[in-house]
Amino acid sequence: MNPSKLVVLLVAISFGALVARAQSSNACSDLAGLTPGGVEITKAELVPAGKTVPPPFPGAPSIGPLPAHCRVDGVINRRKGVDGQEFGIGFAVALPAPEAWNGDFMMQGGGGGNGIVAYPAGANYAGDSPALTRGFAVASTDTGHKAKTGPFDFSFMRDQQAYLDFAFLANAEVAGVAKQIIARYYAKPASYSYFVGCSTGGREGMILSQRYPAVFNGIVSGDPAMRTGLSNLAIAQWIPVAYNQAAPKDASGKPEIDKFLTDQERELFMDALMKKCDARDGVADGMIFDPLGCDFDPAVVACKAGQTEACIAPEKIAAIKKAFAGPKNAYGTQVYPGFLYDAGVARKDGVPGLLALGKNGLFGPYTSATELDVDKAALHASDPLVEPASTNLSTFAQDGGKLIFFHGDSDPWFSPLDTLGYYKSLAAANGGAEKVAEWSRMFLVPGMAHCGGGPSLDHFDMLSAVVGWVEKGIAPDFVIATGKAFPGRSRPLCAYPKHAQYTGTGDTQDARNFRCQ
User: Fold this and answer.
1) pLDDT tens digit string along 283-329?
2) Which pLDDT score is estimated for 365?
3) 20 to 30 A from 371, CA-CA: which of 62, 235, 239, 351?
4) Class of residue 475 by CB neighbours under 10 A (exposed 0-12, middle 13-18, buried 19+)
5) Is residue 440 a contact partner of residue 426, using CB atoms and an 8 Å limit?
6) Is the domain of 196 the same as that of 332?
7) Alpha-carbon distance 143 to 165, whole Å?
8) DSSP letters along 273-288, please?
9) Would residue 504 count as lying in a domain?
10) CATH number, domain at 397?
């Protein structure tokens, strides 16, 4: 090429890039002038490439560096509520550059009691790259209130509207506003919309599929906080009461629940469990991939008559079996499901397992009683506003919606059997299990604690799984998982009722040598 023409071409390209950036900047700042009903845009500004978001919680990795994007912040229905407090649904939307947008919208779920507007990066369960980096427009919300004392501040519930926003209203409202912002910024609407959340975010995903079936095309619901009242009954009362009956007592006669099992007893218990169930998938690798087929009976390590070593006292074994079986009322009716015997139940670091409760139980407070009136406790443990109990998802399914569940087998806060029970119950209201599998799948995650951690492979890309299902019709029979607990290892997480099974040949660290059966 002629050198002078090359110079002209480079100048034209540079000028075009400057114009594009100026147009993008103007388009972003112009969003501050949007005035949808009841919505106040508080900020709209370009964020340069390279931004890194601090870890969302201790021990988590930072997020980024992120690509250049337009961030829009706002509040829906700002108002004065109980005690003169200011309420309103805070939200943020991150918009990748027009040339980088993939045409889709993703909303990220919250956690705990919400109350913060997390950075809308879409990093959770999206594999190695946050959704924003992958070209999604991303939104987040505080669901209508500001947390004052930490992630489990529920004082906002004294305000009825704030409670309703948290329970089910806020996410759908923010999604509607985010879609308007997206359409304005890109001059066209998003092609598909997705929601991904865990814990409270998992519950939110279920609520959206049930109450707002047309808002999202694909939903990922992880470790959902489905029935917090009943799960709290189980972990803050039922399990401690069971352990208290066999725990040593302090000088005042109060049970010392943190001393219920010694380290040696926990090790003995876990050795017996893993010996029984670890290799059911063809490999003894410190993970139980067939927990529902694990027929472990803790009685195998109970002390026999006259035995005092290498065993656990029968009364402690009885307490463990009662605790893991879950709360039952006076008539023997199961009030909340039991918990799985899994590789992470004796974990002491991070979120402790159910065999390693501290002085304050799992996360405090807990009862020091040795008796429990389950009927009375369960009477006040349900809240229909918050609990996603409806199983008729016919509209969601008929509109092409796809719903993916996942749950950690060692989750000590919410039983994976509760989520699995809900998933199985969808069959009766939606044409049978085979019909449900056409639009919903459930994945159990061996060893994983609540939404991550534990002796598990807790790094996986559920976002791509649901996008491929919605946009290409590829149902996810399995999702590949890795994790820092087992460096260099990968496994397929198989859709229920299948589990990963070693083929018998090849590297046992490689997911390609496992099949779902």
Assistant:
1) 999 999 999 999 999 999 999 998 989 999 999 999 999 999 999 99
2) 63
3) 351
4) middle
5) yes
6) no
7) 6
8) HHHHHGGGGS--SS--
9) no
10) 3.40.50.1820
Question: Is residue 505 included in any domain, yes or no?
Answer: no
Instruction: Give the residue from 379, 401, 433 where a domain finishes.
Output: 379
Three-state SS for 411? coil
**More reliable by pLDDT, 170 or 54:** 170
Distance (Å, whole) CA 185 – CA 178: 10
Is 199 one of the catalytic residues?
Answer: yes
How many Cα atoms occupy the beta-carbon half-sphere of 163 within 13 Å? 12
Is the residue at 49 inside a domain? yes
What pLDDT, on a 0 to 100 scale, did the predictor assign at position 3? Answer: 43
Mean pLDDT on 86-92: 98
Distance between CA atoms of residues 316 and 296, nearest Å = 16
Q: Nearest-CA neighbor of 87 among 19, 162, 36, 18?
A: 162
The one catalytic residue among 450, 458, 490, 499: 450
d(CA 450, CA 461): 17
CA nearest to 220, candidates 451, 504, 516, 487: 451
Instruction: Tell me which of 223, 290, 411, 418 is the catalytic residue.
Output: 411
Residue 411 is a catalytic residue = yes
Overall domain count for the chain = 2
Determine the structural domain holding residue 349 and report its residue range.
230-379
445 against 380, higher pLDDT = 445
Q: Which of 351, 379, 407 is the last residue of a domain?
A: 379
pLDDT tens digits along 122-168 = 999 999 999 999 999 999 999 999 999 988 999 999 999 999 999 99
Q: Which residue among the candidates 199, 209, 231, 415 is catalytic per the annotation?
A: 199
- The Cα–Cα gap between 258 and 268 comes to 17
Other beta carbons within 10 angstroms of residue 256's beta carbon come to: 14
CA nearest 28: which of 39, 41, 47, 44? 44
Task: Looking at the structure, tell me whether residues 317 and 418 fall in a common domain.
Answer: no
Using an 8 Å Cβ cutoff, are 79 and 71 in contact? no
- Whether residues 348 and 403 share a domain: the answer is no
Co-location of 156 and 27 in the same domain: yes
Taking only the tens place, the pLDDT of each residue in 411-464 is 999 999 999 999 999 999 999 999 999 999 999 999 999 999 999 999 999 999
Confidence of residue 175 (pLDDT cuts 50, 70, 90): very high
pTM of the model: 0.93
69 and 183 part of one domain? yes
Residue 9: per-residue pLDDT = 35
Residues 108 and 57 in one domain: yes
473 pLDDT higher than 60: yes
289/350 same-domain check: yes
The pLDDT assigned to 24 comes to: 59
* Amino acid at the residue 455: P
Residue 437 located in a structural domain:
yes
Together in a domain, 87 and 202? yes
What span, in angstroms and rounded, lies between the C-alpha atoms of 21 and 363? Answer: 49
| H-helix or E-strand spanning residue 77 | strand 69-80
| Annotated catalytic residue 69 | no
Work out whether strand 491-494 and strand 478-482 pair parallel, antiparallel, or are unpaired: antiparallel
